[in-house]
Design brief:
Layout lengths: L4 H18 L4 H4 L18 E2 L8 E6 L4 E8 L2 E4 L10 E6 L5 E11 L5 H5 L8 E5 L23 E6 L15 E8 L7 E4 L20 E6 L2 E11 L11 E6 L4 H10 L5
Antiparallel strand pairs: 1-9, 2-3, 2-5, 3-4, 4-7, 5-6, 6-7, 8-9, 8-11, 9-10, 10-13, 11-12, 12-13
Length: 275
């Protein structure tokens, strides 16, 4: 994956403009869509199915004043879970909502809380770090249903199944292919644990183009099925192309919530999140 924030912003801007045009939002208003893709996670490529229902009901689009865009998930009426690298200090962030006729509008973010142990350099190097953050909205998200916050089943074993969701691009570098909520079923590979989980397409196994996160999917929820239904057990942090190359459709890096769930719940309750 590419490293360096200046390069990230330069690569993110064409994608941001494409998504802004696709959603018919003025680019200067969305100029908020760069930090993001810390090229960390790109968008769901490889034929991820569109899904505004099911796990997709909690998924939201986050845009920033630096020109970046990311995915988040509602975990309480006014609280969104996302990746820490998506909402770094020095920018303003908003949530994209859709009203009648699917016309987009922007909702203000009241507060941002980034896990204090997050290290950007670790995330860019695909090492484990506390890549989680919460957004407090001014008002309940319109037309969205919160998802349940949980943690992965322990032990996490190779072959364990997870579902990722995001609004990222389906074609790398083509911002117009993003903006639609998509989901994909992936499996754990390598040495999954409570610090990091690496996911691949069960067919391609990360060795050829397949399902995976891409630009705009950073911060997206990662679900695992429980007896009570799917719960969020992690967030998307980064992606690679096949065999670890730069791009998408190879491996999807996930930050599991095992070590961070208590901080998330405590922070949400301090905001009156009612979790």
């Amino acid at each position: 994956m590419l490293r360096g924030t200046s390069l990230i912003r330069r690569l993110a801007m064409p994608v941001a403009r494409g998504i802004a045009a696709a959603m018919k939002i003025h680019v200067l208003t969305i100029a908020a869509l760069a930090l993001l893709a810390a090229t960390p996670a790109d968008a769901i490529v490889g034929g991820g199915a569109p899904s505004a229902d099911g796990v997709g009901r909690s998924v939201v689009t986050i845009v920033g004043s630096r020109g970046n865009f990311c995915t988040g998930a509602l975990i309480a009426p006014k609280i969104v879970l996302t990746a820490a690298h998506c909402v770094q200090p020095g920018a303003d962030y908003k949530i994209v909502e859709y009203g009648a006729g699917k016309q987009p509008s922007l909702q203000d973010v009241k507060s941002v809380a980034i896990h204090p142990a997050f290290k950007m350099e670790a995330m860019l190097a695909h090492r484990a770090t506390a890549d989680v953050a919460l957004l407090q909205l001014n008002a309940p998200a319109n037309g969205k249903t919160p998802s349940t916050l949980g943690a992965p089943n322990i032990p996490i074993i190779v072959g364990s199944r997870f579902t990722i969701a995001g609004i990222g691009v389906t074609v790398r570098g083509d911002g117009k292919s993003g903006g639609t909520i998509r989901v994909a079923g992936l499996i754990a590979t390598g040495k999954p644990g409570t610090l990091q989980i690496r996911l691949v397409d069960p067919v391609g196994q990360g060795t050829r183009d397949g399902l995976g996160a891409c630009t705009g999917d950073s911060g997206g929820p990662v679900f695992e099925d429980k007896p009570t239904g799917p719960v969020i057990v992690g967030v998307v942090s980064w992606s690679t192309g096949p065999n670890g190359s730069a791009g998408c459709g190879g491996m999807t890096g996930v930050t599991p919530l095992t070590l961070y769930r208590d901080w998330l719940v405590q922070t949400a309750r301090q905001w009156g999140g009612g979790m």
